Model the fold of this input.
Amino acid sequence: MEAALEVKDLIKHYAVRGSIFGSIGRRERRVVHAVDGISFTVTPGEILGLVGESGCGKTTTGKLVTRLEAPTSGSIVFQGRDIAGLSQSQLRAVRQDLQIIFQDPYDSLDPRYTVEMAVQEPLRAQGVDLAERRRRVEETLDMVELRPARMFMSRYPHELSGGQRQRVAIARAMIVRPRFVIADEPVSMLDVSIRAGLLTLMRRWNQELGVSFLFITHDLGVARYMSNRIVVMYLGKIVETGLTEAVIGQPKHPYTQMLIAAVPDPDPRNRRVEQELRGEVASAIDPPSGCRFHPRCPIAQAICAEQEPALRQLRDGRLAACHFAE
Amino acid sequence: MKTTLLEVRDLVMHFRVGSGWVHAVDGVSFELRRGETMGVVGESGSGKTSLGYAMLRLLPANGRILGGSIVFDGVDLVPLPEEDLRRLRWTRFAMIFQNAMSALNPVFRVGDQIMDAIRHHTGVSRAVARERAGALFELVGLSRARLRGYPHEFSGGMKQRAMIALALSCKPDLVVADEPTTALDVVAQGQVLRQIKDLQRDLDLAMIFVSHDISVVAEICRNVAVMYAGEFVEYGPTEHLLTDPRHPYTMALLRSFPSVRGPLKTLLSVPGSPPDLVRPPSGCRFHPRCPFAQAICSEVSPPATPTFDGGWARCHFTEEIRRQGSDAIEVLDKVR
Done:
């Protein structure tokens, strides 16, 4: 079967200026290696989780895949077509099938627009007539459980709670019936008691309509709940990827192990294993040589500083980029 | 048994907004012994941050304590003159704020800011203050050399450690920490939580740990209070409360959290959204969202029913919930 999305050797480097003094003297151009050669596939109807800490490149990956930013190199094949090099006008045809939901429900809605105006906007751009737009808005608000839909249509963002705003943002992405959705931390700003409802809503959307998701989150519990497969990133690279239950249940890369060991748990019966939590994420401007995780890695050897480990297949089928993973 | 350090009784703190008074803290009572840690969990708007500030009488300009007492080591802080309060702050109790990034002044060296605080409150010499600041940095896992660094040279986790060092600088008996790890990534959060655990053990420090994250509180607190709409709805020893909750809100909170360990559970959400605290609901404030609510719940505010080991829950149906055990959760499931 054709992949819903296939990303290959994707790279995004940002040029940054050095210090003030550096720019006066020799013009030193420094490069942030935000995303540094990643490849992954999302199969149709799948939810792929993309996890990592801040600065790992997960949000940049989401922006590249939706072409809100242009990649430095690499390919992004969506519906059989490489969209990495398309112009903004060429992208318009693709956008309908490729929607994005952002983290901040307070930021992503225009305060001057009613819910109806905000949700119908993508349809207007497509030239759908008014009566049909109204009907679709009503139907979509009902799907995201903003009921009764007619009552919510005339409301402004400031009259809505955070959870309701995020439902509006989801409705706006859903209304064009996309086949692929990128969700970047869609619930992390929301209170826990309303998070579950939104996650369930997105899962139903995936299961009932077959919409594929790239689900970006720093929260491993949320990633576990949402995704079939998972990609773990560290400093612009993929360190481990495979079935979610395998990767989270028995992580093989030392970074994934550290990440999971650090997650607190409310159930005293699920006490985490005591594992050393060493160091801090290095700078993406001068990433460490060899394996980028080696300065923090509890099992690092001489080779780790010299040679970058390939992302290779382990016995159970998952991939890990570690010289010593088995 | 250790002696009581802090006893809060029927504390009421409201603050004025355009449309009236927000009932941010409405009749909260608890007791904290020396060296003990209590967690306060709640969602945004539950009043947990207001409570943290109110119990140290750090009130916003529009806030008023309208009733109750806050007895700290035998002294009621509510009627205490501001001057006397100032003497107690930092030296007897201190606060760690949520946003360490903005609490440190960017144009001064971090070490100088800590030394200034030590000298201001204790009047020791510069050399003594420097030595103590260095020892504090080591205590929180930062190297002494970092004292000469500026805030922008510190990562989020390092800033939060420096804030903890600042809070501990005058050897307080009590530290109130408001979401001290929320802005941190998971590994840095794990590191800071472990540091706090070590400090509790080594310094016999009493702590009140305010957070929206029940799992963070579970890591480091002996007792937990669950706050909803300005009130404590359940209180008890962490292990009991988190494995055998008796208030429907606590049950729902625990089931709304996707875990990375144990079997994968279906998540539950609480219908509706938190109430407007200018006009809180009658009776039990959770009743409009509660799947177990009966007529009595909208009429009578439930009393605290004892649960286990000094714990209690404010629900009319704690006994039914206990009898039904995990079946009660099924009720929540069906409602969804």
